[in-house]
């Protein structure tokens, strides 16, 4: 499993892949787990989350994860809830046409 941290973006998150290669974004703040869609721009590897009708910049996917974001239709989103229990949801990956 790989892990790439994106704490410099303003949204503390890290990238991982499960044993099947499915992309996974682990957020520090559980509010981001409720993102409706994750927007991935293959040319720049930029990742944004659509949350409450806003487009929020998450960061740039390291090269090790770009293939997974290009190949899969869903991404796993997770974070630890304030109660200490994990919260896990899936979101669709959108790739805008340029």
Characterization of this structure:
By secondary structure, this protein is mainly β. The chain has one domain (3-94). Helix content is 9%, strand content 48%. The chain contains one helix and eight strands. The protein has one helix at residues 63-71, and strands spanning 3-5, 13-17, 23-27, 37-41, 46-51, 54-60, 74-80, 86-94. The chain has an eight-stranded mixed sheet with strand order 1-2-3-7-8-4-5-6. It is globular and about 40 Å long. It starts with a strand and ends with a strand. 30% of the residues are buried. Mean pLDDT is 88; it is low at 1-8.
Question: Which secondary-structure class do the elements indicate?
Answer: mainly beta
Strand content: over 45%
Q: How far apart are the termini?
A: 31 Å
**H-E order:** EEEEEEHEE
Range of helix content: under 10%
Radius of gyration: 12 Å
Topology record:
Blueprint: E1 3-5, E2 13-17, E3 23-27, E4 37-41, E5 46-51, E6 54-60, H1 63-71, E7 74-80, E8 86-94
Q: What's a quick, concise take on this entry?
A:
The protein is built from one helix and eight strands. It is mainly β and 98 residues long.
Protein traits:
disordered N terminus; 98 residues; mainly beta; 9% helix
């Amino acid at each position: 499993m790989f892990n790439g941290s994106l704490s410099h973006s303003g949204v503390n998150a890290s990238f991982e892949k499960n044993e099947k290669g499915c992309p996974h974004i682990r957020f520090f703040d559980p509010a981001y787990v409720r993102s409706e869609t994750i927007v991935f721009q293959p040319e720049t590897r930029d990742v944004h989350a659509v949350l409450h009708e806003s487009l929020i910049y998450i960061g740039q996917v390291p090269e090790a994860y770009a293939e997974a974001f290009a190949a899969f239709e869903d991404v796993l989103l997770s974070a630890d809830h304030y109660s200490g229990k994990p919260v896990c949801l899936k979101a669709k990956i959108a790739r805008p046409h340029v």
